[in-house]
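From the thread on structure requests for the teaching lab: each student submitted one protein with a one-line request. Submission from student K.M.:

"Model FZ domain-containing protein from Hebeloma cylindrosporum, tokens only."
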Amino acid sequence: MLPESLIFLLAATTVYAQARPNLELNTVTSLNSQRLPQPPSFAIPQQNKLCISVALCSDSTTLPRFFVSNISNSDSQDDPGPNGGPNVFEIVLERGQGNWTGTFVNGGILAVDSNGASGLPFELAVADDTPLHENTRDLPFLGDTTSNQALLLSPAFQKIDIEKPIYPSYTLPTADNPQPGQPTNSSNITVIISPTSSGLADKLQTGCFLSSQPSVGTIANETFWARDEQGWRSQWLMGGLTPSTNYTAYVLQNSTKVSGPIFFSTKSASFNCPLVHSLPYCPGVAYSVPLPAPPSGAISYDSSNLPTDLTTPLLSYMANFTTTLTTFACGRDWYSPIVGCDDCQREYRKWLCSISFTRCGEPSTENPNGFTAVPGQPSATGLSATKQTDAAGAQRVLSALRPQETRDPPRNPFLPQLGSRYNMLLPCLEQCNQVDRACPPFLQFKCPTNDFNAAASYGVGYIDSSDGDQNGGLTGVAQDRWGNVWCNLI
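Reply posted by the TA:
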């Protein structure tokens, strides 16, 4: 018979082993550095590959440390710790977040060293796909702003299955192009907006921390929107913002995945172009347009209240173009091994919408002269997107804004006269070139050339160089995450 002291020791060891809780797969566990199990460790399930992620929900001068081992999750396995050892790895935190991916054939252990941190909330998660906590590479998309509004879209969260037309049925979307059915796997997606002066971008970049921070503005409209072939997004029309103010925006998914930050500025109090959005036939239009104030007390224009004098010609052009396009054999053997009639129609729709709905703009208050003040003439030989600013020849990028006086006719003759001065943001030349590349030659769709008259009606030299070198422009993009918008691309 075993001695009584040894029996008690074995019993205590059994209790000790059973005290190590399991981390459930694909589940977020919320914890606090003052309320941890004893010992402060967790069992990781057996799996060929797992992603372990950590997110701090509050900041502190003293932070806990996290260690993982993947030898086994056996009750007799020692906790990993700062002294290292075989198969012991520290999860390094950056801006409050960290993850480690590895194999756990026999399971593993995640240990928490509080390191003197007092009452610090944090989250742990184990996932069999991508980390549940992460900062995604896909950024939110800024449609546009007015003096007190902003139109924001999340990154695409669900693909849309679009059937490519094949012989002999070359069926293309109708001119009115209704949105597909609502998404099936929409998750909890939220938007956070903060004045840039609050310094939110310099703090912890974790979902649980950002969720706890105050967000300004009011959501005037929230919907799901498929603005392009990338898929479904959440779209927010925000109101209650302050004129001429810099803002920082994030989009959170399930309060664990962080997209952002992006930065934007509201327009001045005198800006008078309303927002236009949620047009199924022009799904990429999400910006301010030189139109009178929306009718019936509406705060923006959408498909329900746009003037028919503006939409009827556009739908007619789209229908006629589609009819002409489908007289051509769209199959790979007759057309192209790369693109088809559906690509041609899609790019033509984008181009038609961009020139039908002129975009308003406004120079940045930090760079009030950062635009081309003199409109290009029909014989212009290309727009230089730079301007010398000092004797050393340093240059800065100028946006493709064009002042429009009250007496100037609108670019689209079906747009009503605004009755006041505004700035027009020209479409990017690439918007036209995309149609030229995607459509069959018999349509004879032509764009102005970079070295002759493109600058009279398009922004040149931003995405592609003024010589036409792809992605060789001064910015490489039509707009960036810092709120700069160089030309209009939808």
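TA comment: The chain has a mean pLDDT of 88. The longest strand covers residues 47-56.
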